[in-house]
Amino acid sequence: MSTDDSPRLSTGVDGFDSVVHGGLLPGRSYLVRGAPGTGKTIFGLHFLTAGDDEETPLYVNLEEPTADIRANAASLGFDLSGVEFLDLSPTAEFFAEDRSYSIFEADDVESESVHDSIRERVDSLDPDRVFVDPLTQFRYLASDDFQFRKQVISFMRYLKDGDATVLFTSQRSDETPDDDLQFLADGIVEFGRTDHGRTVAVPKFRGSDRQSGTHSMSITDDGIEVYPLLEPGDHAAAFDTEAIPSGVGELDALLGGGIERGTITVVSGPTGVGKTTVGTLFMEEAAARGERSIIYHFEESPRTFRHRCESIGIPVSDLEDDGALEVESVEALDLSAEKFAAMVREQVEARGASVVMLDGIDGYKLSIQNREDELVSKLHALGRYLKNMGVTVIMVDEIDTVTGEFRATDAGISYLADNVLFMRHVEMESELRKVVGVLKKRVGEFERTLRELEITSEGIVVGDPLTGASNVLRGTPTVRDGADR
User: Fold this and answer.
1) Same topology for domains 14-229 and 234-479, yes or no?
2) Can you tell me the distance from the alpha carbon of 7 to that of 55, in angstroms, rounded to the nearest whole number?
3) Are 342 and 193 in contact (CB under 8 A)?
4) How confident is the model at residue 407 (pLDDT cuts 50, 70, 90)?
5) Helix, strand, coil: what percent of the chain each, to 5?
6) pLDDT score, position 484
7) Which of 236-250, 258-272, 414-428 has the lowest mean pLDDT?
8) Bridge pairing between strands 264-269 and 392-398
9) What is the distance between the alpha carbons of residues 13 and 225, in angstroms, rounded to a whole number?
10) How sure is the predictor about 373, in pLDDT bands with cuts at 50, 70 and 90?
11) What are the extents of the domains in the chain?
């Protein structure tokens, strides 16, 4: 039975709280799994410091000394001044003496038993949040696996009887798996690390639904950031499907008035043909209407982009200064697809961007840390989300041939597009010229002709429809006598 409306405890990681629909269920126990260095302890620090002043957090450290934990936490900006500690980590004296301790059997312990230490500390504090790191250390103090499981069940029941919410970590290996702890826990949080970046998943979460799948995460100077999988169907906004013009009358005529709000337009063509410049025209017009746009450059530097645009009269710097346009460079191999989607969502939901351009689909594939076979599906999810939110999307796709056989796109994304605006270099009378046309438009009519396009110091000029020419898309058109050239 789902209890998604039940009170929740924040973990202190907003993205993770979103995955578990608001936070952890109070009074339950959660196993935090993962190889060394995947972020288990940092997650525990987030959890312990996420409560309000009325809550009492307790850190039961069974491996690392308190002083080391405080120092490591401070380096990440965590203030542990309000966190209580029960330090059961081995001391130097422990290794110097031959001792065999049992957790719950005080008679076998030469000094104060671990059991008594825990009971006295918990009784005196009555903690609300407890983090045990790592619980698997208890395994080495138990006589066998049966005693370990028995003692862990007793320990967890004791903490939960006091209404504490418990996180505990495990250090598993092939020799000492943690399958028994997975069955004992109410929920499992699993951290991982692959060649494509860090991940987190929640394979088990009793009492509530959660977002399934493997989510992207990173460890920053501020701790853990989680980027949930983007599920487009969960997002929608009301909007008018009006045509968005480019400001160039002939180009808008070619497009049947412009591109509709809430659609995806792929602008394709070889290098140097003017794809990004044409896409920017729609952003300049959006600024004139008081709307905000953002361009993500995956291949070109913002400095070069600004220089090119301003040399033909598109005032990119002024638009940036006015807050109508943001230009952002995406560094190679710096982001996961989920983190990039979170960046875009921030621009749309928090900053009101209504036009989004992805400049360089091949660059997206190279720059985003995911398996290549997953990237088109990630891009599809992002595109669907933006459409649902009424955002006008422009994707720039570079074709690797200058002339020759015509191809709409090289990136395998034409099925995503509501509109395909293609641009080509053509040779006419030993001169390299440019043409533009519309291959596809799902909403409304469009011209099925080609027009010549020029980029001048005064801006973009689009000519009348080309008539009397054939084989234009092959790059070497033939023009019949008397036809317009």
Assistant:
1) yes
2) 15
3) no
4) low
5) 35, 25, 40
6) 53
7) 414-428
8) parallel
9) 7
10) confident
11) 14-229, 234-479
CB neighbourhood size of 373 (10 A): 7
Query: How many angstroms separate the CA atoms of 131 and 85, rounded?
Result: 10
Q: Where are the alpha helices (DSSP H) in 185-315?
A: 249-254, 275-288, 302-311
In this structure, CATH architecture of domain 14-229 = 3-Layer(aba) Sandwich (3.40)
Place of tokens 């993500």: 296
Q: Is 70 exceeded by the pLDDT of residue 99?
A: no
Q: Are 135 and 170 in contact (CB under 8 A)?
A: yes
In the prediction, which pLDDT does 156 show?
A: 83
- In terms of DSSP bridges, do strands 419-428 and 431-441 run parallel, antiparallel, or are they unpaired? antiparallel
Q: What is the CA radius of gyration of the chain?
A: 30
**Homologous superfamily assigned to 234-479:** P-loop containing nucleotide triphosphate hydrolases (3.40.50.300)
Amino acid at 461: V
Q: Which residue has the higher pLDDT, 403 or 441?
A: 441
Q: What is the mean pLDDT of residues 390-419?
A: 77
φ, ψ (nearest 5 deg) of residue 70: -60, -40
The residue type found at 444 is: G
